[in-house]
């Protein structure tokens, strides 16, 4: 078996145990949170008497010992069954699949934008260190990093939607427009511009600072001086010799943050009224919908594990001197 295939298979086996351990931890974490979902539902139904609450607890299985609830939950997880949301009256898996496309289109676009933009700006700032362009990029990056995400989102809505009227502020598509084909794609893309920009700015600032610092450490090393002495063009020196060696710390941080983007999307989806996983998590917390929360946590952990595996594989692609090892 090739080494890369052996590495992937061994990491996948480990990932299964890691995800199961995270599922157990999430179960106790969610059940340790204050609030009784049966009492919340009974209160919303206008019948918050003790008898009705107890009836709901029996119906949802909340009256059973915690270890029995854990056993039931884990047996379902092993069978890829994420449970049933009595609040939404739908299987949790179906709920997540309905919301996942919105969250993926938001987070993946923001991640790619932040990574490419951050590396480009960080490289430009490092290669022109001490100039006005370096100072401008550094100031803008620090401002984006220090400003709360929700505040950036609100200001962008105020400027581009309310004052200028260029971009829609809420939702994923124009309601009642009836667009199809290319027009529908453009309409959805316009609705994503402000959320993606808001979410991407913070991470772009991080990657810009990290890329700049890494390149400043590498650009004066001996192998770079040797490349310049050979008369290689500057673009080749930067892209092949400097950036290739300086990019590894950026990949490491990006691999960790890629999985956390779903968590960061909670604020963005709430501000821009996007029906994604983040907004579903926010609603589930308010409604004490344990099954939905556990499903979202499990999905997030799977995403983090997958991105960590991809990060290790990208290491070997960027720098062949690094060999993958389980």
Automatic annotation (TrEMBL):
Keywords: Cell membrane, Membrane, Plasmid, Transmembrane, Transmembrane helix, Transport. Its main location: membrane. One of its GO terms (cellular component) is plasma membrane. The keyword Cell membrane applies. Gene3D superfamilies: MetI-like. Residues 100-315 form the ABC transmembrane type-1 domain. The keyword Cell division does not apply. It is found in: Cell membrane. InterPro entries: BPD_transp_1_N, MetI-like, MetI-like_sf. It comes from the Bacteria. SUPFAM superfamilies: MetI-like. Belongs to the binding-protein-dependent transport system permease family. This is ABC transporter permease. It comes from Azospirillum brasilense.
């Amino acid at each position: 078996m090739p080494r890369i295939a052996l590495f992937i298979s061994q990491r996948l086996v480990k990932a299964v145990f890691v995800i199961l351990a995270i599922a157990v931890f999430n179960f106790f974490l969610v059940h340790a949170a204050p609030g009784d979902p049966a009492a919340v539902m009974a209160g919303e139904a206008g019948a918050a008497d003790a008898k009705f609450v107890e009836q709901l607890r029996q119906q949802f299985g909340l009256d059973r010992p915690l270890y029995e609830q854990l056993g039931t939950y884990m047996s379902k997880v092993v069978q890829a069954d994420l449970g049933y949301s009595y609040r939404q009256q739908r299987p949790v898996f179906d709920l997540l699949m309905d919301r996942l496309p919105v969250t993926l289109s938001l987070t993946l676009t923001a991640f790619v934008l932040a990574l490419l933009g951050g590396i480009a700006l960080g490289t430009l700032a490092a290669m022109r260190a001490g100039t006005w362009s370096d100072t401008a990029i550094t100031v803008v990056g620090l401002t984006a990093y220090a400003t709360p995400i929700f505040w950036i989102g609100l200001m962008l809505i105020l400027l581009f939607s309310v004052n200028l009227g260029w971009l829609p502020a809420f939702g994923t598509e124009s309601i009642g427009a009836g667009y199809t084909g290319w027009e529908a794609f453009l309409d959805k893309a316009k609705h994503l511009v402000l959320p993606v920009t808001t979410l991407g700015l913070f991470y772009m600032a991080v990657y810009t600072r990290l890329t700049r610092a890494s390149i400043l450490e590498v650009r004066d090393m001996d192998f770079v001086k040797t490349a310049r002495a050979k008369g290689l063009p500057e673009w080749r020196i930067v892209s092949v010799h400097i950036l290739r060696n300086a990019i590894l710390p950026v990949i490491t941080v990006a691999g960790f943050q890629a999985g956390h983007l779903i968590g960061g999307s909670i604020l963005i989806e709430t501000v821009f009224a996007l029906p994604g996983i983040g907004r579903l998590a926010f609603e589930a917390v308010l409604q004490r919908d344990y099954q939905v929360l556990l499903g979202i946590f499990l999905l997030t952990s799977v995403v983090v594990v997958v991105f960590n595996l991809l990060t290790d594989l990208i290491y070997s692609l960027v720098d062949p001197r690094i060999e993958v090892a389980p």
